[in-house]
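Following up on my earlier thread - several people asked me to post the actual chain instead of describing it. Fair enough. Here it is, all 304 residues.
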Amino acid sequence: MKLKRFTILIVAIFITAVSFSLSSCSSQNNQVKGVADNPVKIGVVKSSDPQWQILKDGLAKENIFIQIINFTDYTSENPALARGELDINEFQHLDYLASYNNDTNDNLAPIGATAIFPIGLYPNKEVGVKDLNDLKADDTVVIPNDDTNQSRAIHLLVSANLVQVKDKEMSILTPKDILQTSKVKVKSVQANQAAHSLSDKSISAAIINNDYIKDANLEPKDAILKESSDDEFAQRFINVWVVKNDKVNDEILNKVVMWASHSKEFLDAILQNSAGTAQMVASEYNTSKLQEILQKLQIDKANE
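Reply from S.P.:
Thanks for posting it. Predicted structure:
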């Protein structure tokens, strides 16, 4: 009898210990996000950019703690978010997100915006081009050759009636879509070579990403044509804060985005880091409007 009671006691102690362990583990997994020992994990590219330290310091004053996770490419952040290794990321525009969701059958969602980083058309002043009116018939304009920026560049030229295409409503355009009746000729080169092309006197202008305008000793004000945040096509290039679909209404994640969207210091850091080219749109696009644009993009891409 004593042995039986002892066995029952041991089993009871074991069950209590296991229950306590599981309870502890569950409590740890369900711990509130944003506290010091369970910070919000944010995936970014170039964590050394000044806005991220501003975000970290500013949120800490609100007792919200974050951890900035650095990535060196543009392909790892969304899978990491989908696997739960990140809580939120900020590195991509809506066009990229739409392609990712379609390609992976995932359902990541935007909950806030930062800026549009526009591309611009820069003139070759050495051949006498100072504004759009100086571009003559059959002049050659250089554009980047990567898929996203090539399409952006052609749309920008279409907006100024410099080129004509088969269907300007298509989201994805390539040089094959440009009609021979266009005013100017188009030459595609690598994005980092577009700026250098202005040293060639056979080139009248070039569309250059803001990352590379310094390579040609240019300033944003030198552009004779650039994307506008008011343009419907440019909206697809709004950079966004992205979460898993079931976290769209997460209180802490929305507080992070809300703080960033209303912090002049944070937004000014983005603007300065872009050499003044960024068009700040944080206050113009709420979650529902961003998701509406994303949904349309995904449908358009699926049908093309």
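Residues 33 and 251 are 10 Å apart (CA to CA). That should answer part of your original question.
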